[in-house]
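Field: COMPLEX_INPUT
Field: COMPONENT_COUNT = two
Field: RESIDUE_TOTAL = 699
Field: MODE = joint
Values follow.
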Amino acid sequence: MQSDGHVIDIRDLTKRYGELVAVDGISFSVARGEVFGILGPNGAGKTTTLEMVEGLRKPDGGSIVVDGHSVWPSPKAVKRLIGVQLQATALFDYQKLWEIIYVFGSTYGIHRSRRECVELLERVGIAEKAEAYADQLSGGQAQRLSIALALVNDPVITFLDEPTTGLDPRARRALWDVIREINYRGTTVVLTSHYMEEAERLCDRVAVMDHGHIMDIGPPQQLINKLGAEAVVTFTLSRRLPLADLGGLEGVNDCRAQEELGYELVASDAQRVVMSLLDRAREQDVRVENLDVKGATLEDVFLQLTGHKLADDEAAPDGAEASQPRRRFGFGGGGR
Amino acid sequence: MKTWLDLLHADFQMMVRNRQALFWTFFFPVLLMGLMGVVFGQEDAFTMNLQIVNQDGTPAAQSVVTTFEQVPGVKTTVTADRQQALDALKEGDYAAVLVLPPGMAASFAKGSLALPFFYDNSNMIQSSTVQSLVQQVLTEISYRATGTQPAFTLQSQGIAALGFDYIDFLVPGIVAMSLMTNGIYAVSGTFVSYREKGVLRRLKATPMPLTSFISAGVLMHLITALIQAALVIAVGVFLFNVHVASGPTLLKVGVLALIGSSSFVTIGFFVAAVAKNVEIAAALGNIIGTPMMFLSGIFFPMENAPAWIQPVVKAMPLTYLANALRDVFIKGATLWFVRWDIVVLLVTATVFLVLSVRMFRWE
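Field: COMPLEX_OUTPUT
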């Protein structure tokens, strides 16, 4: 297993709840050292998949090998190797943060000093809360604590189940830095998300999942490019240029003038278009301002693959989503 | 092992820091005991103040006095002034006055003995009790003197139980009650909230077996039970002058506390197993706990309760714990003497353990 660089190998994994097939014979591998995302709406089977890999839920069929160990039937060996962050935070009342870190470390046979516990809290950016109780944390801080708990055993792989659900955009971005840092130190990260932006920004590879199936798998950009979708490049210029001039740029499919000095270019390869636009502007001694590229996103990939949109807290609900019952789990803000 | 001790430590830390739990666990039983002791203890309904007027003064008369002085729960004082004693009786200072007239020893030797006996009949329960008590003691003395039968020991239930202060009755009851509430409410509340919050699920993701977590929790509750019992008894002894039977009474009380507590801890687990959330657990705990608290003879003896309720009384595990604790605490009974109470408690523990293991859900 390790020879081909895979740290997780999943074959034909299946889980049923009565009539419902929650995970329907999926297969995929996770490479050592990557950030791997499972992207899909609530109810797609992401959490069930993760829980089977984590040894929390017994599969009905298929095999899971983690770092050379078969997870089932006895998941204990794998539990030692992995760090787990669950959707519902597990917090003791009346235990200080550093004490919670200590107790959880102790369950792995790791007995940290207080200073070492605080160091781990420092890694996720909540060292100043070391003496606080868990119920005094904000939503973002609670998530950081729960990620710290996923690191207590210095795991080979860290599983993060919707780590940023319920957080405001700023807290979410701050958490991305934490996750990048974990990965930078050499830990493989497997996360689930229903935020396409998160998967796009954070993940080396993404599995798009819906109704228990994996629809496609690959690096986010590759999945987007596969769509052949067009990007829209908008900008303003310091003085007007002839439309034909801009329309003639390499890779531009369409060109429109907007109000004032605004322009809009439609392109299949936004990067190439932006480069040639900047070249042209320099030649003409024109300044390009307010440059913005609205490319195709994983959202579009998802729409293409499944025929419906991802349930996204930030997106306004639309008709496509109404057919998808939206179940919200997670953290009711800073309450816990 | 270190992990397990860490868990135990964390469990204790959490309890000590939780002021509310601390109050209900340790201070509420003491408070309740104090309140009940002050309110109901003052009537002295369970103590006999007996005045003996010794006009005889012979060694035989003195031996009667000594016998009465040894009767537990009877406070015997001696005087030679009959009129003064009767005046004091009218004042309510005494429950009864027994007169040992001059020449008592002589008539006693002839086998006929009529001792003037005066009692306060304003309190019916007390007067009937004191009559039967004195009658019984005298019967014993006469048997002993005539030698027709071996001497009685005054271990008759009615007299021993009623012969003590109310607080002596109350303390073992409060110990039993606090073991019950700690077992049922604390255990079910804690574990249901752990399940609700996903703590159990999160712990399942660690390599530690959940049995370690649960056994640490159970041990914490058992130790807490011992501390509770010790605290109630200590306050009872120092503040209310509770009688503790001689011998290794506290050791036996400790054993009973552990057995009783394990029986209620398993009931607590059962509640946690069937209750979906904390609110349901609390309601269910009340449904089980409240009738027990009032129908198990914690505060008042249930012997005098109507007959129709006796089957309910007998169905309560707490009845057996309270009875066993009382027998051991007051009368210095052996654990063998209360073996059937222990059996009932252990059977309860086993039944509920099996039920909770079958029905427990981790999420």
